[in-house]
Amino acid sequence: MSDHAELEALDLAALLCSRVCHDIISPVGAITNGLEVLDEEDSADMKAFAFDLIRKSASQASAKLQFARLAFGAAGSAGAEIDLADAEKVARGYMQSEKAELSWSAPKALMAKNRVKLLLNLLLLAVGAVPRGGAIKVTVAGAVDAPAFTLVCSGPHARVPAAFEKLVPGHIAGVPVDAHAVQPYYAGLLARACGMSVSARADGEDVVITAEAIA
Q: Which pLDDT does position 77 carry in this prediction?
């Protein structure tokens, strides 16, 4: 297999499905646990706890599914555009259950769907860069048809995501691509599809992830 070999379509689809399932299995499991408590407990306090758990978990599962719909789904026909305000909304919903705080600065505009999908997938990489929590600052600058994305990740032991340098360019030889590693690989596919380059670097104690249009 050459350095630039690509995953088979079926393998990529399976890994992305696993990635989405990984995000939603925890809140769905919590909903199930809450329902079991309602079935088995007579205590008013326990029932109140169960209802609270179900509400929070259902909200979390919904937020993660809405995010996945934009980040991984078709999101309209070929050539479709997505409102950056919608991207911000699903990003904030997703980050409610994450350890890092999100700040978002982007113009009010429609942007080609693959570029928006790339931005959201870079956010997932940014979450991985601060595993112990912290702050992620997302900035969208430049023209809508030639944007520049910057994600500054600040937090304890911030690090460039594992295998980022190989998997974003698609160098998969010798690198096991599982449901976690598929994230940078898929981000690289999106970047190439919309004519953008992606990089990550340490900047002091921060990690900076950038994407910009290829000249």
A: 54
